[in-house]
Amino acid sequence: SALAQPGIQRLRAYDPGHDLVAFRRRFEGRHLVELGSNENPYGPSARAKEAVLGTIHDSFRYPDPLGGDLNRALAAKHGVDVGSILLGNGSHELLMQFAQVFAGPGVDVVASKFGFAVYAIAAQCAGATLRVAPCHADAHAMPRGHDLDAIAAAITDTTRLVYLANPNNPTGTWYDADAFAAFMAKVPGDVVVVVDEAYAEFVDAPGWASALTVQARHPNLVVTRTFSKAYALAGLRVGFAIGHPALIAVMERARESFNVNSAGLAAAEAALGDEEHLRWVVARNAEQRAALATALHDRGLRVFPSQTNFLLVQFAEPGDEARVAGIEAALCERGIVLRPMGGYGLGHCLRITVGNADENRRLLAGLDEVRA
Ligand code: PMP
Q1: Are 173 and 236 found together in one domain?
Q2: Residue 1 domain-assigned?
Q3: 195: Cβ–Cβ under 8 A, 6 or more apart, which residues?
Q4: Judgement on whether residues 232 and 110 belong to the same structural domain of the protein
Q5: Is the CB of 91 under 6 A from ligand 1?
Q6: How far apart are CA 343 and CA 135, in angstroms?
Q7: Does the C-beta of 166 come closer than 6 Å to ligand 1?
Q8: Is residue 173 one of the residues assigned to a domain?
Q9: Residue 124, domain member (yes or no)
Q10: CATH of residue 11
């Protein structure tokens, strides 16, 4: 490890939770309830699955290096030029690449306390200094959510990059369009603001608006989206960014050629064309999210507000992390996988993906057993 650059020596690798492959092998044939990774229980559009099959014969060819068809479909959907779009191997790749391109030694990267873990990893891999702004207090209407005033105040002369998530993972919290407008008015033009909207399709809160609605006004604002969540294509790894063509062009220089594979390109384009499936998934998620939040609340647990496909749930007071770890382990023994939050310093909480009705029922039955 002494051979690694200093940022990486201090780094812990991204924690994907349990070894799910080993877990599936162990529980083979039995019904597993996997609610640890914010995946979409309804699966992708049938059109996307068909499109993947259609790519098999040409899989000896490299994919379209420019992702032309998907780029054009995204540009048409979002009303921007193709030069405003950059495709990534999942949005994770793009989040890493922003730091590579805009940060580096001697540069500050600002993110919020409890912001998505990848922002810190990206900053440290780039050799930049991470400045963590405080989040809203637990008593706030958006507990542990981004405090945009505090984030703006953390920006210094050496800051070149800010990561926001709206909504955020693991908190599920969000901020509204007015707060964001006030924030952008304070950010210097030489600071790139990345707004990670991985869960945007699930949002139904009044007052929320995508940063895409104001992107054209801010050449330093770039928005990331993913096909992993609402479009249910996590395994095919497709994400994208929308920003000013000059910003996208400089990102393009650092992009790995062929970063998005042919199956992913075809599936994402087909999924984009099936708006009915998307609407159906989003409606099911909203209905199940509300029902699950109520059921957990009725069991005396603190459920934080969420506009995503997961809930952050407090199972004990801080200091009683061992009890929560025990509950989590006991659920695992019953084939129910949740995400432990110790890595975020929230070991008294668990993050629960909103499953389908059957999965949520099994989860609640399991919880009632292990907490009895
Ligand atoms: N941003 C957020 C906030 C996420 O929760 C995730 C996935 N957990 C990602 C980005 C990355 O997703 P992907 O690389 O699959 O697009």
Answers
A1: yes
A2: no
A3: 164, 165, 166, 180, 211, 221, 222, 223, 224
A4: yes
A5: yes
A6: 17
A7: no
A8: yes
A9: yes
A10: 3.90.1150.10
Q: Where are the alpha helices (DSSP H) in 161-274?
A: 177-186, 245-254, 262-272
Q: Which of 92, 195, 223 to mutate to test the pocket of ligand 1 (most atoms within 8 A of CB)?
A: 92
Q: Which of 192, 271, 181, 257 is nearest to 226 (CA)?
A: 271
90 lines ligand 1 (CB under 6 A): yes
Query: 354: Cβ–Cβ under 8 A, 6 or more apart, which residues?
Result: 35, 285, 288, 289, 292, 309, 310, 311, 360
Atom of ligand 1 nearest to the CA of 170: 5
Q: Does residue 140 sit in the same domain as residue 244? A: yes
Classify the C-alpha dihedral 331-332-336-338 as positive or negative: positive
Pairing between β-strand 192-196 and β-strand 221-226 as defined by DSSP bridges: parallel
Closest residue (by CA) to atom 3 of ligand 1?
Answer: 169
Taking the centre of ligand 1 as the mean of its atom positions, its distance from the CA of residue 301, in whole angstroms, is 26
Picking from 253, 274, 295, the residue at the C-terminal end of a domain is 274
In this structure, the answer to whether residues 186 and 232 fall within a common structural domain is yes
The reply to whether ligand 1 has any atom less than 6 angstroms from the CB of 11 is: no
- Tell me if 70 CB under 6 Å of ligand 1: no
Q: Where in the sequence is the domain holding 132, given as residue range(s)?
A: 46-274
- Nearest-atom index, ligand 1, CA of 95: 10
- pLDDT confidence of residue 24: 86
43 token code pair: 């699966």
Q: Give the ipTM of the model, two decimals please.
A: 0.99
For residue 308 and ligand 1, the question of a CB distance below 6 A is answered with no
On whether residue 76 sits in a domain, the answer given is: yes
Do the beta carbons of residue 262 and residue 58 sit within 8 Å? Answer: yes
pTM score, two decimals?
0.97
- Looking at the structure, tell me whether residues 178 and 211 fall in a common domain: yes
* Tens digits of residue pLDDT in 194-206: 999 999 999 999 9
Shared-domain flag, residues 235 and 358: no
Q: How large is the average pLDDT for residues 263-268? A: 98
166 C-alpha vs ligand 1 centroid, how far in Å? 12
- Kindly indicate the confidence band of residue 101, based on its pLDDT and cuts at 50, 70 and 90: very high
Q: Do residues 285 and 310 make contact, with C-beta atoms less than 8 angstroms apart?
A: no
The pLDDT of residue 18: 79
pLDDT single digits (tens) 312-330: 999 999 999 999 999 999 9
Q: Answer yes or no: is the C-beta of 171 below 6 A from any ligand 1 atom.
A: no
pLDDT digits (tens, 9 = 90+) for 218-240: 999 999 999 999 999 999 999 99
